[in-house]
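Input sequence (98 aa), recorded before submission:
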Amino acid sequence: MYPHIPHEEGLQAIRRALHKREQQNIRTDDIVDLPEIVLKNKSFVFGTEHYLQKMDSAIGTRMAPSYANIFMADPEQSLICTTSKKPYFWMRYMTTYL
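Predicted structure, token format:
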């Protein structure tokens, strides 16, 4: 899932999630700058060549599972809030490979 999250949509989901936090003593934009640096400056080596991954999120990034979780919570919340029939129980399955 997370290798296919567009940067701008993912960063907007992080921004919306951060606006809901109780303590706002650190500006949201300052916090969003950190995952943006990670997402937009991921480099890797293949053979002897160095590459910069410009699109989507890198699979090996430690923040990727949390990033995908925040990204998926956004449309899920909208669906749950707007549907007339509410689920009795809602879960999201995530797995990480080490």
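Checked by second reader. The helical segments are 7-19, 28-40, 64-82.
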